[in-house]
Amino acid sequence: MRRRAGRPATPVLSREIIARAALGLIDDEGADGFSLAALAKRLGVRPSSFYNHVDGKDDILAAVRELVSDSIDASMFARLPWDEALIVWAHGYRDTFAAHPPAISLLATLPITGALRTLRMYDQVVSGLQRGGWPGEMIIPVMVSVESFILGSALDMVAPPDMFDCGPLSSEAPSFAAAVRARDAASAAHGRPPADLSFEVGLTAIVDGLRGTLRALGGPPGSLGSPGPLGSLGSLGSLPDGTGAERAAAPLPRDITPDTDLTGEPA
After folding, report:
1. What is the pTM of this model?
2. What residue ranges of the chain have pLDDT lower than 70?
3. Percent helix, strand, coil in the chain (nearest 5)?
């Protein structure tokens, strides 16, 4: 007797389908909620069904890493100077992981074995740094230092907006409370989240420092100016975002100087 055509008895699986379901599970339940049993329940299959398509939990997470990495464009390293490329890459990387914050703790500590598309993305970054004159032994440390900052900044994007609110304890930490108010005022004035201001300040400082490091090693400093403490902070408004377009940045309040009393207390 021929089996009637129609819906298969069990859902059709593939590595891609499993990875998408796993990423959805991680987004919904967090890193601690991810397990093969929970994933199988979500897909309506038995856990043993996975092994026709993947090698186990680590391979599923490698596929998740590839899925996330697919949204991180690194092609700019083939056409832009290394420092400009780092800035564009950092914006896109941050936006990608901000959409999947629970995945950060899983993927940031997982070996990239098996994640071919992620390896290709990293290879573009490394090739761009090589062309920029970075010595071989410095390339991975440079990339990882920027990547670590990006991942922390992605978490900051999804942190509670009142995370630094001192509430009734403001009088116990007056300088801190005033600094938070100043940041929030700058954020509101320029229509950008506070996390963006922190990201722009930090990224500018890192790239400025890397330019100086490369110049000290005898290589070209890069294309965006000379190194120095927040040397190009004043031009943050012209830095490219993850799409290659310019994005406006909220500058630091210019009326705050080292002599400004931020406490609100009488001198």
Report:
1. 0.75
2. 1-11, 224-267
3. 60, 0, 40
